[in-house]
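Quick question, first post here. What does this chain look like in 3D?
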Amino acid sequence: MKDKRLILKLKQGDSKALNIIIEKYSSYVYTVISNIIGEYMTEEDIEEVVSDSFVNLWNNSDKLSEDRPLTPYLSAIARNAAKNRFRQFHTEYSFEDISDEPADRDNIPELIENYQALSLVYDAVENFNSIDKEIFIRYYFYGEKLEAIAKITDLTLSNCKTKLCRTRKKIKVYLTERGYDYEVKR
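> Answer (accepted):
Ran it through. C-alpha cells below.
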C-alpha cells in the first residue's frame, strides 16, 4: 500500500494502517535508532524507542501530509526519540558528530512543522547521483558515521566529507528556491 493511502487511513484512526506502517518501516526505524544508540543501549531499549516512535506517529497522524512520503518524518521522529533516550541514561556523551539539532521529544508540533521541509529535502536527495544520495541518506537518515560511510562507498574520508558538504549546499539552494529560509541553529 502506498504511503499516501496509509497516511489517509492513519488520519482516520485506522489501526490496521498503523500495523502496515509498522510492518513496512520497522526495520528502517530500527536501523536509524540503532545507528544512534546501538552501542550504548540494550536491544530492549532500542526496541522500546522503536515502539515509542510509532506511538508518536499514531498520536500525531492528523498533522501528516498525504502528499509526502513517510520516511523523512519517521527518520526525524526516530532520531529524536533515540537521542532523548540516550540523554536520559548517558549524560556524559554528546552528539557532536550529528550535525542537526534535535527537537525536544515533547515538542512534536515543532517536528510536524519541519515535516514539509524534511519532505522537500527527501525530494531533493532523490535527484542526486547515486553516491551523493547514498552518503547523504546514510549520514542524515540512518545516522551512520562518515568513517563508516567512506569505507562502504570506497571513498576517502576527505572525499566523503566534500561530497556531503556539496550535497548540503545543493539542498540549501533547493530549499531556498521553494521559499524556505535556510539557517543553521546553534
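The CA atoms of residues 11 and 105 lie 21 Å apart.
Residues 91-109 have pLDDT under 50 and may be disordered.
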